[in-house]
Design a protein that fits this description.
Elements: E1 9-13, H1 18-29, E2 33-38, E3 56-60, H2 66-73, E4 78-81, H3 94-112, E5 115-119, H4 131-146, E6 151-155, E7 158-159, H5 166-175, E8 178-182, E9 188-189, E10 192-193, H6 194-206, E11 214-217, E12 223-224, H7 225-236, E13 241-245, H8 247-259, H9 269-274, H10 283-287, H11 302-310
Helix pairs in contact: 1-6, 2-3, 3-4, 5-7, 7-11
Length: about 325
């Protein structure tokens, strides 16, 4: 644990990932000492400029290896778990990473006498049909049992640079004349900016949030899957045909794609299952102020952020619409 004359030490699991790096930035700006627990510390050098000299240090840890988890947490004042996967690959399964791994982090945090902030997802449910949502739910149950005072964050779909949603479909739109509307494109999302999620996590580390609480994080606008694609197409200045893809066909495509050795499959059957349920902040969370608005965090809009990182998907890249195309 930190002495009285030095900043608190925060260990961030998955700190080199999309959400994790924004969490590290938010914590660094507050002056915390940060230990980034990742599988490959040699690939986490991009985090160093986010803080001062010696403020951010990477350490090797694998959620499947309990000893490495214990070592990463030792001496910490607070632990943040940002680890999550969208598809299974080899030994990185939903059960091993999102259930077993989360429990290991919670148990190590309790043993170290630290506090925990865990990033889950809207829709997390131990009885969910989707393996992603099921293991997120099982993790929440385990954390509540091991560390009742833990703060759990459930974000909707997260957008921002390097996101896996708008970037994926914008890349697809560069080469395909049509885009798929899975299940008709009616599933509702409440896209939340990654910087807002990071700010919420940082406030949890600050001790400004109610412990033992599950917060649901959504942006200012509820959008259907179709509206998300239309917004993205408007930003990248491309016209594409939106084709409705029935659930059964989408699931079949997902199963086939999962069998092909992609680095990342374009779609999995589990993702199709996940898309069958709306992904928005619940009325209960709103009524109980368990939201970003309840934290007094200004909500960042999709319209304000998408142009900042999707312009390179335009026909002439960032120069489209500037008069320099000619």
């Amino acid at each position: 644990m930190s002495s009285l004359n030095q900043p608190k030490l925060v260990t961030v699991f998955g700190g080199s990932g999309f959400v994790g790096r924004h969490v590290v930035r938010a914590l660094a700006r507050r002056g915390y000492r940060i230990r980034v627990a990742v599988r490959r510390p040699d690939l986490a050098g991009h985090l160093q400029p986010l803080g001062g000299v010696g403020q951010i240090a990477a350490i090797q840890a694998n959620l499947r290896n309990r000893e490495s988890v214990n070592r990463a947490v030792a001496g910490s004042d607070h632990v943040v778990n940002c680890v999550g996967i969208l598809f299974q690959s080899g030994r990185n399964t939903f059960d091993s990473v999102q259930d077993f791994g989360a429990r290991a982090v919670a148990e190590a945090t309790r043993a170290a006498g630290a506090s925990l902030t865990h990033i889950s997802a809207i829709g997390a449910d131990p009885k969910a049909e989707s393996d992603y949502a099921r293991t997120k739910g099982l993790a929440e149950v385990a954390i509540a049992r091991v560390l009742p005072d833990a703060v759990i964050m459930r974000p909707s779909i997260i957008f921002g640079p390097e996101d896996g949603f708008f970037n994926k479909f914008a890349q697809m739109a560069r080469f395909s004349p049509f885009l798929p509307l899975i299940g008709g494109g009616e599933t509702k999302f409440q896209p939340v900016y990654v910087g807002d999620v990071a700010e919420a996590v940082a406030r949890s580390v600050d001790g400004r949030l109610t412990t033992g609480t599950v917060y649901e994080l959504g942006g200012p606008r509820v959008m259907s899957f179709m509206q998300c694609l239309e917004e993205m197409l408007g930003v990248i200045q491309r016209k594409r045909v939106l084709v409705s893809l029935p659930w059964s066909l989408a699931s079949l495509i997902g199963k086939v794609a999962s069998l092909i050795p992609f680095i990342e499959p374009p779609l999995t059957s589990d993702q199709v299952t996940l898309l069958k349920a709306d992904n928005v902040v619940s009325a209960e969370a709103v009524a109980e102020n368990r939201t970003l608005a309840g934290m007094d965090i200004p909500l960042t809009t999709v319209e304000a952020i998408l142009p900042s990182y999707l312009t390179h998907y335009r026909p002439q890249g960032q120069y489209s619409g500037t008069g320099s195309e000619a």
